[in-house]
Amino acid sequence: MQARALCLAALGVLAASTPALAQKTSTQAIEEYREMLQDGNPADLYEMKGAELWTKKRGPKGASLEKCDLGKGPGVVKGAFVELPRYFADTGKVQDLESRLLTCMSTLQGIDPKEVIDGKWGKGERANVTALATWIGSESKGMPFNLPQSNAKERVMYEVGKRLFFMRGGSHDFSCASCHGEDGKRIRLQDLPRLSGNPGDGVGFAAWPAYRVSNGQMWSMQHRLNDCYRQQRFPEPGYASDATVALGVYLGVNAKGSKSIVPAIKR
User: Fold this and answer.
1) Which amino acids are annotated catalytic?
2) Cis amide leading into 85 (omega within 30)
3) How many CB atoms within 10 Å of residue 252?
């Protein structure tokens, strides 16, 4: 409710200052609107919940996640987010943040991954993973993305992600590239960054997880990708599937050097 009130207030200010905004582009106006909301970003609440979940003893094994290895050693969180997805030797797979959290929750706490995979957005263990991802992401805020590509499986996933990005299909014959394959595109007042290259700091891959003001929800990258598929009229991919991980590798490698602003706020 607080976020919606802030949204309405911000829109009111924008409407009242229409003559002043006439000299600005829609992009500049939207950026000012986001800045007005940033101080009261409800993502802070999810961040706090995620920090609590990291140290809380849960699951059948009554353990915390403090020994979870996110790629920089057991328990090391700072800097991990901007190097994911990456290859993990213990699973023999390339994993993004969410799929890696499923592994840690399963092995350390005994929580069945199906509780997340078969769950619903914003509910139960899937909501817990979103909160954890928000906090973990916040620990690398302002750091540049630098996804590793030294392992052969990481390079394969990049190529798979690239093919998925440009693959057309569905009832509208869309692909990810239909919206995000070239500069200067937008839908209504929303700019659509070109994600086949480096879109810059805090744009695209570097902005999720983010709080969506329009529906009052915290969205992880998994949720963002699933909704993109929904809008393309594709069948939505499974949670933490190889397809979403591969897309994450492609987008993340392309974002090399861009600084993370997670947790962000979106309209």
Assistant:
1) 228
2) yes
3) 25
- What's the CATH number where 188 sits? 1.10.760.10
Element of type H or E holding 187: strand 185-187
Q: How far apart are the first and last CA of the chain?
A: 15
CA–CA gap between residue 207 and residue 142 (Å, rounded): 11
| 165 closest CA partner among 185, 182, 145, 190 | 182
Q: What is the 3-state secondary structure (H, E, C) of 244-255?
A: HHHHHHHHHHHC
- How many domains, in total, are found in the chain? 1
Residues 4, 186, 179: CA angle, nearest 5 degrees: 110
Rounded CA gap, 68 and 74, in Å? 5
Question: pLDDT digits over 46-89, tens only?
Answer: 999 999 999 999 999 999 999 999 999 999 999 999 999 999 99
Closest to 64 (Cα-Cα) out of 74, 56, 73, 76: 56
Q: Are the C-beta atoms of residues 245 and 94 closer than 8 Å to each other?
A: yes
> Residue 264: what are its φ and ψ, rounded to 5°?
-95, 180
19 domain residue, yes or no: no
> 33 in helix, strand or coil?
helix
- Strands 190-192, 264-266: pairing kind: unpaired
Token digits for 52? 């609590």
Using an 8 Å Cβ cutoff, are 219 and 124 in contact?
no
Asked if the structure places residue 11 within a domain, the reply is: no
In a domain, 14, yes or no: no
The three-state secondary structure class of 167 is coil
> Residue 77: which domain range?
43-266
Cα–Cα distance, 45 to 131 (Å, whole number): 9
- 145 inside domain: yes
**pTM (two decimals):** 0.85
